[in-house]
Amino acid sequence: MSETILYKKRVLQLLKDLESEQIERTISTVDTNKFAQAVCAFSNDLHNTSLNGYLFIGAHDNGKLTGLKATDKQLQSLGGLRSDGNILPQPIMSVKSFSFDEGDVIVIEVQPSPFPPVRQILACSTSALVWRLRLKIWIWIYFGTSTLRMPLMLKY
Q: What CATH number is associated with residue 91?
């Protein structure tokens, strides 16, 4: 596994790079489902690169910043992706905010998992009469610049 220390100059370099299996950008600040997908895909490291993945929140696809002003609440919420029970096994990730003249960018840095596949688990329906919970379990991977899902449906 690769462990790096992010600093502002490195963040600027990564923002200028093309989107890839290690770099994803989004202008959304609230789409936790999309964030979880990216965390899973980076964790699964399909091509066994052993490189960390980076999700940039508050950046356009071309790397320009949106003018985001990151808050502690946003950082706590994003950090909760690791331990909210919807991604298993727990990803190895960190959440940091970097401030620039054009605005802030939140970076989720994800290390490849030593225990793939990392899965996103979503409850899709419950029934009090049947006492059955259906779970959608998605295994997300990056293939080039595309995020692909591999479904697994379980009934309990």
A: 3.30.950.30
